[in-house]
Structures are given as C-alpha cells and as structure tokens.
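User: Structure tokens for both sequences below?

Assistant:
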Amino acid sequence: MCKYVKIIILLLSLIKSTETFRLFSSDAGTYKEPRPFFTSSKQLIDDYFDGNLAPVSRTINSHTFVFVMYYANFCGISRRMRDPYEKAAAFYRERTSDGNVTLDKFHVKFIAVDCFHYNGQCRKTYKLNYFPHMFLYVKGTRGYQYFGPAIASNIIEFIEKIRMPVMRLTHVNDFLDFIVQYESTVLASFDFSNDLQRQQSSLYVQAALKHIEYDNEHPVRFAIILNQSITDELSRLYVNNTFQTPFVVLHQLHTEPQMFPNMTNNFTMENLYQWIINEESEAHVGWLIPRNRYYSHSPSIDKATVTDALTDYDNLLLFFTSNRLDEIKLRQIYFYLSSCNVTHSSRWLEQLERLYNDSFADLPENLNKTQLHRLSSCCHYALSQISTDDLYNICLLNYPLSLLNFSNKHANVCLPILKIKSVEKLCVELYCQQWLRNSSLTYEKSSNTNRDAVLDKRRDKFYEQILKIQPKKILEGNSSTEKYRNFLCGINSTWAIRLINSRHYPNFAQNIGIMNTSRAIIVLQPKLSVKRNQRFVRLTKRYKAYQQAHNEQHYILNDTHITTENIYKLIYEISHNVRSRSYTSIPNDEAVINHSNKLIELTTDTFHPIVFDSTKHVLVVYYTKWCGFCQSIWPVVYQTKKFFENFSDLIFTRIQADKHDLPWHLTAYHYPTIILFPAKKKNHSIVFPTSTESITSVSLIKYLLYHLYIPDTPNDHWCQPSNNSFLSMLSSTYVDFSQISYLVKSFS
C-alpha cells in the first residue's frame, strides 16, 4: 500500500510542476510560459517578466533615478546579479508609517525586465548580445550603464557617483583633502552668472558622468570650486600657472597640473572627456578589479588580471584588505618613496597623514571602566534612536548622530561625546555596514512591534562587538624611515601598488598561500614574457639575473607584520635583491631521501637540494590529488622505477604541485607533467612529450634510455662491459625500441 501512495505523490508533484512551467506553442516552436525572476516577498523590484516596456518607460519619465536590469531568465550571470540587486534596492527604500499603513518611498526606483522572453516587447525592440544589461536612467538625460561586479556595495557606489558626479568644494581644507585622496582629480571653476559659463558647467558634468560610466578602471574624481579662497590657494601652490575663471585643470600628485586649452572655442563634452583620457597618467596606487570590461562576466581576479597589471612594471605590490581607507595610507607610502621631483611633496605627505588619521576612530587605550561604560552607553543610546526612517539619512547621507532628538537626561552626557568625529564614526560606520549586510531583516513583512524587536536584537549584537571590531590601522614602526625617502627615484626599477578587496575576491590570495587573514601584502615580479616593447638584449640580462636569484614570483608580508616601516623595508630589500622570495609549502613527513619502493616526495624546501644534485639523474613527476589521470599513472611509474632499480645514478621523485611553490622556470601548469633533470646538465631539463607519447612503461623507459644512457652514435667504448649490469647485457647491440616491451615484461 505504501508503495502505491509514493507513486501517487510523485505523479501529483509532476502535475504540479507542469502547472508551474506551462508551455505554449507557436509557429516558431514551443516555449515556457513567462514567470517571475524576482520571487522574494520583499517587493523591492518591479519585475516585468513578460518583457513589457510600456510601464518601464512611464517609470523612467516619472522618477528622477530609475535603475533597470535587462535580464534573461536562463542566464547564470543574471541570476548571480539577482541577490545584490535586491540588496541595493533595499538600501534605497525608506519605510514610513501613516497611521496603520506602511508607506514605501524609493530614492532610486529599481526595475527588472526579461529581455529574452520570446514574445516580449523588450526582445523585439533591443537586440542584446549578452545579459544582464544594467542602466541607471536620470530624468531629463540618458541611461548610464553599469559594468561592475555582482556586489551590492559596488552597485550602490556607482549609483552615488551618478547621483553626485561632481563634488562641491567650499572650503580650503575640503579642497586639500580632495586632491590628495584621489591620485587624479579634475578641478573646474565657472561664473554661474554668465550664461556661456553655465552652459560650460553643464558640459563639464556630462563629461564627469561619461567618465564614471566608461572608465571604472582608472577612476578620476571631478569637483567644482565654489569659493575664491580655493582658487587663491591653488595659485599659491602653483605659481607658474594662472587660474582665471573659467578654467578646468587636471591635477595629478606626481606631475604639474595641466590646463584645458582654449576654453572659449574648444569646450565640448567629448573634447573634455578625450582630453582627460589622453592626459591622465596611470595611477601608481589603485584598486585591482576583474579584467573584463563587463565585470559581471568575470567575477573573480585571476592570473590574467594580475598579468595585465604587471605589464608595464618591474614590481607589483598587491595589498589584500577590506578597508578602503588603506588606499590613502598606501598612497602616502608610495609618495614618500618617490616624490623627489614633486612640488610641495612635504605638504601633500602631511595632508595624507592627517586625512588617514582623522578617518579612523582612534579610542584612547587608557580608558578607565567609567569612561568606557559612558562611551558604550552613549553609542548604544544613540543607536537605539535610529528608526527605519533615519537609516537612509544616517548611513548614506552621513546625517550626524548629534542632531538626533535626545532626551534632556542623555543630551548633557552624550552630546559632547558624540560630537567627537572618531567616536561618531565608531558608533555609526560598522552599524551601517551590518545594516546593509542584513537588510533583509529590516524589510520583512511584519508588524511595527516585530520590526522594532528585530532592530533591537541587531543593535544589541552590534553593541557587544562595537569596541572589538574597529577597522585596523596600519601602524608606524619604531625606527626612523628617513633612509627610505625618495629612494625609488634613484633605482632602475618601477613599482605599482594595487589593492584587492579581500572580502569580495578571497580566492586569489588563497591560491598563493594566504589563508585566514583579512590583510596581507604580496609583491609579484613578472616573467620575462610579460614585459612588452623590451629589447632582446635586456631580456637576456634579466634572464641571467633571475636564474642566479632563483626567484620570480612573490614575497609575502602577513597581517601581523604589516607596519609602515616593514612596507618600506620590504620594497627596499626587493629593489636591491636582498630579500628571499616566499614559497607556499606544506609539511611532508615522506620527503626523505631513500631508494625504497616509494617515490621520493619533494617539497619546496627539498626540491633544489635533491633535484639539482649534480651526481644524480632525477625524474620529477608533477601531480595534484584532484587530478584523476595523475592517479592512473602511478603503476606505470613504479614499473619503470623497478626496471631501473640497479641504476644508482637515477632517482625517481614526485611533487604535489598545487601545495608546494617553485620558481617560475621550475613550475608546471598541466598535470601530470614529467621532467627529467640530467646529472651534468640541470639547465637542460627534458619534458616528457605527452602531446605525442602516451605515458606507458615502454615510452618512459624509451624516454630515459634515449636521453641518459644511449648516445646518438654508438661507439666501441660504449660497447665495452661496464659496472652497470643492464648496459653489460646490451653491450654489443644498439637497442631496438620496438622490442623494448619484451624487456619490460622480463623486469616486471
């Protein structure tokens, strides 16, 4: 009876499935019925899964900012974008109560359209060759395409840049912070009482928007000067230039500012955009992102991405971090090492140091229990005042906590504390990050009481950790660093610094030996083939230097050792070739030198002394445990080893290549790989030709005999009896390789 019940349940489930995915027919074929792509109950996205464009056009015309995702239901990249797209939509939704009714206000409207549905208007109108296409439409202008990764914070950052493409500078300190915070900046000044200059300012904003859209790899920030004192300060800094309104200037820390030529007759949006692209130098310090322009298609940082970054430099310092403020510190470090020809370098260094320190919530280490309790209480009280109505203003628009309506009892105690910038950052910044990560909790359909309970629960959890999870600061060292200042100016070696977000791209760090850390430094040096436009003579010299140093790839500085002084020391020692490179390796108890039935297991540390022993021929098998074919060749290798067991000058070894790093010229990238290192010719290693030969006992023995024991032309001396029993057996006849299989069987 139970058996029949199970069959009936199965049939019912199939019927239900058929109802969910009904098919419809047409002259062109049979297709699935359209179904929603965003199925969450949060109702954050207007999903037009039938491909209808009419409501999309109406929404774009009626809202200031509308983000539209043109997707295909079957597309894996579209599905990967679905969750971060919903999180970004939640970030811009503000919920307000009107009596017993909860109203939603969207500061940015989010829409999704299935543009692959067979009979949909979207597919008939647009011929899209990939998915998803994502556009932020601004009322009165056009749509700006998002090319970024499927990460909610990146989507939000893109939206905020489009919403505010140009910074408004009203104070000198804001101006100084702005030009050091970004390596390349564009500054402009216009007289808004002049009709022509108002039109030029509009073109300036359009150029900024186009740069944000198309040049994410080399971000340049734009600003408008609104105070004459800033123009005066700019004139004092660069006395050789005259800054008379209107002007547009490209400011880069390592070069003199460049003025846009002929503001009267040559000022168009396209000319300004092209001028910035042509004149802008590549940043020495910046964030590394996936190499594909359509970053959502390439969600991880791979070897090709790093190779591109290495193309024009001798050394690449990769800094793995989840703290965006580290970019400011690394810019200061690079500037300290290479600012010998820069005007006002000391002032820029001081400004970078101040900006970095002010951005951190530095709490005194000697707080007593009473002070610590008071600080914690004020943070907790301030956060308890945050309602869902305040979240948008506080977390996105930096609305000060001190402006909240506190009761008189708490105002006298907490307001003086919360006015301290570092304390306010500590109270708010991490809470906002947590709010964004857990935004789904806030927007579940629930009563006001349940909503407040959820917020209180999260506040309590945050309160317990608030003083323990402050962003880590790069500390200074104890010794003087004066000897490192500007030393990069006097050496023939180029450096670039790239930051990688360790939270979004953890795999690359793990692949080269960095585990369980949020911050680390790796210095990479390129292979010879990476460098472009170099003469062969120079390559030959560098090749010899690399051979002597036995290094190529990376030097690692772990989290516990990252200080300003150690970073200076690392760059200095690598530039002068006195730093030993880092290798990834795991302990291996089987790495002993004996000639038993087992192969010798090599590690990073034992590879060179064993393989480069000039008295031994060494056969190395590169393998990995996840390689299925590698497991099938071991009987062949063991049989070959037994065949040569009386050859005391031949050693059989193997190395687990994905667990033990080697210099680039000794590294294999396909598994299994078999390489022979002859005794007297270690620099002339011989790779087993797997492309033309199968890995069998016969082919391996043929390969070893041919390259080690049988000369090209047999002579009388070779035919004489020797101490080697096998050569004695073959003393009068040249080996016929076609008959070697019989020899193999006799030794098996």
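Moving on to the next sequence.
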Amino acid sequence: MWRSFWRSIDRFSLQHFKYVINELRAIKVVDLRNRELVIDLLQSIVEIVTYGDRQDPMIFECFMEYQVLAEFVRLLKISKNSRIEAPLLQYLSIMIQNMDSEHAIYYCFSNDYVNNIIAHKYEFDGGDLAPYYVSFLRAVSSKINKDTLCLLVKVQEDAVVSFPLYSEALKFAHYEEKMIQTAVRALTLNIYNVSDDMVFQFITTPPVSKYFSDVVCRLRKQCLHLDTFLQAKEEMCTHGRRNELILETDKIVDDLYYLKDILSVSENRLGRFITQNIFSLLVFPILLPLLQLRQQIDGSNISEVTSLYIISRLIQVIGGKRVINAVAGVILYPYLTSSVGGATEGDTVDANGNSFLNHLNDVEKLVCSGPETEGSENTSNSMFGHLGEHVSSDSQFVGGAWNDLCIERGGIFKYVFADNSPSLLLASLFLLLILAESKDLDYFLFPMIGRIPDMTTQAREFSASQRVNESIFVKFMPQILNALLKILASQPPLSVLIQWHTGWFFRKLLISQGNSLSDLNFQLFNSRERLQKELDGCWFDRIPDTFRSEWSNCRTALEESSQCKDPFFALELAACREKTDGGDATLSALQRMVEAVKVFILHLQLKAFIFKGDLPEKPTLNSTTGPTADSGRSHTSDISSASFGSDVSLGSGIPCSIAFSNAGIRDVYLVPAARGITGKLLLTEKHPFRSQRGVVIAIAPLAGLSPKIDKDHPSWLHLQIREFDPRFDTSKARGNHLKMSNHVADGRWTLGFPNAKACETARFLILEEIGKQRSFVESMLAPLLQDDFLGNLSDNQDE
C-alpha cells in the first residue's frame, strides 16, 4: 500500500512533469506509429496540470515556463493522418474545465494559444471530431469573464474585428446532432452573459448578426414543417402520430426557450435586435395574414390553428413587456375604431396601411419606454423596422370603421365565432386569454381587452368596479359563453378531449364574469342519457370506480392555470379525431363507457361551479348496501371471494359441459352470483370427496356476459367474456387519453346443457344476477343522476 502511495506522489511530482514535457518536445511528427504514445503524454500532462492547479503552484509555473500550450499547437501542425486531434481536444477540454485558478485561466487564454487551436484547419467530414471540437469550445466559453474575454478577440480602433471562439462555434449552430446544437447555444449564452459592449457591437453587426435571423428563420421553417405534418391527410389520430406531433412542437419550444434566454441577457441593444428579428421574420408573417391585415403572398401558408398555437406558445415562453404588448397591439388593431380609446367613427385605413403602421409606432413607443430602454438607440433600428416588407400596396388591409358585426366576422374573433371548428374557437380564445391575464399588458391596451385574473382566489377578490365594461371580452362575453355551451351541449356529443378543454375555458370565463350567466341558454345535461345507456353496457360494473378516478382528474384539468396549459391541445384537436378500435368490441365498449363518465363528470362539476361557486372534491356515490346487493343465497359471500382453485358451495348450480381447447370436454356446474358491485360466473367441477362442494376452474365477470341461446342448438348457451379489471391509463399528459397497457381480447364460452329447459333456466339465472348487480350500481349512482344533485352534493360535502 505504501509503495503504491509513493508511486502516486511521484507521478505528480515536478520532476516527472518536466520529464513528460521533454518527451513531448522530442516528438517531431505524429503518425499512427507513435499516436498512442502521444496520447499517453497528453493525458499525463493534463492530469499533472489539474493536480498542480490546486495543490502545487510550482507545477503551473513550469507549465508556463515550458510553454506547454505551444506544444499542443505544434502537435496539431505536425500531425499526419494520425487522428490525434480528437484526444488532444478532449484532454484540453478536461484541463480547462477543471481549472479553478483565475491566474491559470488567464494564462491559457493569452498569447493566442487557444485562438490558434480554435482556428486550426480541422477535417470534420465523415468523422467524430465535431463533438470533441465543440465540447472544447464550450469548455473555453465556460471560463470567460470580463477580464478574459478580451484575450480571445482581435480589436482594431476600438472595435472587435475577429472573435474565433464565437465565429467558429456558429458554423455548428445547425448541426444534425442535438448534443452539438445544445453545446453551441450554451456557448453563445456564456458569451452574451459577459455583457461586453464591443462584443455586442460585433455580434449585432453584419455578417455576424445573420446568426440571429438564421435562428428565427429556422424556427419559422420548423413551424412550416409542423403545419405540413398537421395538415397531412390521415383519417384518424393514432398514438404514433400524436407522439410525432409532440416531437415537432418540442423542437419549436426548444428554440423559443433559447430566444428567451438571449432576451434575458441584461443588454437592451441585443434584446431589441432579437425582438425585431422575431417580429419581422416570424410573428408578422404569421399574424398579419391570420388577422386578415395582409394576404399571404410568399406561398408559405400556415394554417390558422398552427398560427394561433405558435403565437400563444411564443407569449407563454418568451413573454415580456415588449412581446406581450406588440402582439396585443397587432391583434387589437381592428377594434381600435370601435373601442373607447380608438379612432373616430369613419376613420379609414389607406391602401398602404399607413394607419396601421402609425398604430404600431405608437405601440412601440409604449413598449420601449421605461427604465429598461433608457439610453438605447431609438432611430433606424426600430423594433418594427422591417414591417414595410410585409405591408405593401399589394396587401389588403381592412378599411373603414368596424362595427360589432365586423368585429365578430373579422380579426381574431372570426375564429372565436367560427362555426363547426372547436379547435379554432378554443385556440383563438386561448390567445386572448393569456394576453388578458398578462401582468405586462399596458394601460393603453388594457381597456380594449380587459384583464382576466388567472387564479381563483384572485378572481374572488376581483371586484366588478375593476372590470372594463368597454373591453371586447366583456362586450362579447355572452356570445363567447354561448359558443362554448353549444360545444358542451352538442348532439351528437363531441369528443371528450374537446369537451374537457371547452369546460376549462367556460369555467375560466365564468370566473371573470363573477359566475354570472345572464340569459344564456344553459343545457349541460345531455350527457345523463348517454351515461344511463352505459348502465346497459358490458362495463357497467366499472362505472363507480371510473367516477372515483376521473373526478379528481377533471377537477385538476379545470383548475389548471393558463400559463401551465399547453396550447398543444389546439393542434391535437385539429389533427385528431378520437376513435375506438373497431377490431375489438370489448375495448370499444370500455372506451365509450369511460368517455361517457368523463363528459358527465365535467358537466356535473361545471354545474356545481355555476351554482355553488366551487368544484366539488369528490363524487356523491351511495355506498350503502341495499336489498339488491345480495343474491339471497347463503353461499353468495363464499362465491364473491372465490378465485381459481377455491372450494365453494355448489348451491343451486346448474350442471353443464364445456369444451376447452387444451383440456377437452369437462363436466362442470354453472354458478352465477352477485353481491353488491361484484358479480361473478363460476365454472366448478364437483369435489371428488364432498358432494355439495366444487372446485373453481374458470371465472368470468357477470357484466357483459350477454347470454344467448343458439338458434340451431337450443341446449347451447353462448356467453361473451371480458376482463375483470382492465389496466388502462387515463393520466393527463398533454391531454386525456385512454390507453390500454395490455390488449383486451374478446372471449367466448359455449356451454352445453342436458336439454333446452335447463339451458333457458341457466340463461334466466344469469340475467337475474346481472340485474341485481346492475341495480346496486344504479343505486350507487342515484345521487348523481337526480335533478337535485346540488342538494345531495352539499349534504355529502358537509359529512
């Protein structure tokens, strides 16, 4: 042990370090024959320098005296197809990352050592060198600060003319590998956060500044790709298609968060530059055609729902006073002439859209005023400087004064009141909601849209005097609520996904109205009849458990905040039409039952919220045991707990036979029994030693048996067999979906009886027990199905 200890100390000694350096200096050419030796020497140097940086100052003094970094540069130059670059960059990255001494970092960055390594002509084609190179660049960027950044740039006449670290990194900005893209973005943010004035001037000046427009243009291409994928002609929304849609949106969200990180840098010039690119290259090309303020003339059409998704996501992710008020200013422009603070009646917009540009200039002054913009340049570098490219004589602008009818049929309200398009209604309404809830919405725009509190507690404290009666939200609230009610009460009913999201909007707007419905046509209980039909279905015994599990899910979905709600739902509604798997009747029936319960729960909770002002915490199920809970036979409790191999009483079991594929024909007794919500059909073989007892060889749930006598063979009884307890996942992950963990297969038994009378008796006995089980389920659900549900709810919540 001591020998190993002294050997490790010797390895990091100054004498050994000098020996390794001299060995490295003796290398005249690097090729495949000595490549491994050179790698070992590089590894030893990095390990010793890392140790010396923390433990022995003399080692780093030696490192500087012998100019070891110059040897690294020399090795790159004398390498001949040895592929030494990757390990050299890897060890350099490790060394820089582990340096703690500011003195050591300052030295490494001086004398152009690092710049020479960065600027070396590497061959990246067809190899794995790029990840090592970018990792090295990122390691360097992680150590820069105001004192060391100047060592990595070249300056002439008080201006940066060259910045190899930044310029070379940008060449990999759109590299195929995600890891490299992430490293480059981390590197750029490290540089921006240093906040060096000359560097900011360099990166915001062409041609270097093209990087920012490239980022936004690439984001726009991803939006176009998302829309193309969304519009693909597919009949139904499969699980795989939905996952692909999520992946496409994740790419867009990643880019938005990167832009947000850049805007978070405390340098107003960079923030204005990025914001200008976002609006001129992304927002205006999407938003102006969407609002009919300009025709789409470049051929890059993006559908309305995708446009609304992108703008909503941009506000959620990037946000900020500039973005919020600029977007709100463009959206609210058509309503200025009809609002309190708008133009006089008869004000028009000329063919060139000058009035619109003047409005945007007013918005810009509003947005860019305040402490955060003091001292910034406010001349030609206007935030909306490139808008003229989008507003031309070829563009079609809305002209003349806008009355209420025009507002409903134009601008964003064209989609709010869109017929037969729930996805557009909800997507446009969501955009208006997040604008109205924003704390950054300025007083100039606030009177036109109004403010909607985001939290329930805030809503209760939000007095009527604080609402702006002239806002478009208040003005058209009855029409909006009626449009939502129309979806909730639609016949035939729309999908659960649409209804739950619609319920969220309905509750949100009711909060802003103080739960006042005025003269709205309230029809929410069409779902009761749909649920009652499921009591005759093959999954009626699972309805109470579904109520318990989905009740809290619905409450959580309704209470979700706007900032947390993902507008992905709009894309999902547009792309997907929920379906059942036609290949399996049992699974289809299960999906129908769950959907019926979920819609019924939604309607109950909304009604409770309207009349009671709150969402109930739990369903009011009647769990008491009534006379219908038991078969009345002494062995019922025995049977209700029976499992495979159990010894049970045969009681009034009916003898019959059944053929198994792997066991031939078996003589058995059919024993149906219901106790409470539990119902089972047992097939038992007579016990060999106890004549009144039997051994269970097969079990099926009573629900769904649907006993039918064969037409050609009246002594045969056909039974449909389903799962007892299906494993399905209704957890919310960007929506509410029924997902079977294991495929539920339809089963079938055919039982043979001695004669037709015995077969009919067995059928009647099964139906009798199913009826008792169903009656118990109905008694459990009775409080929810009654008209005085709210009274029952109050009693239940007080218990």
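User: Anything stand out in the second?

Assistant: The chain has a mean pLDDT of 80.
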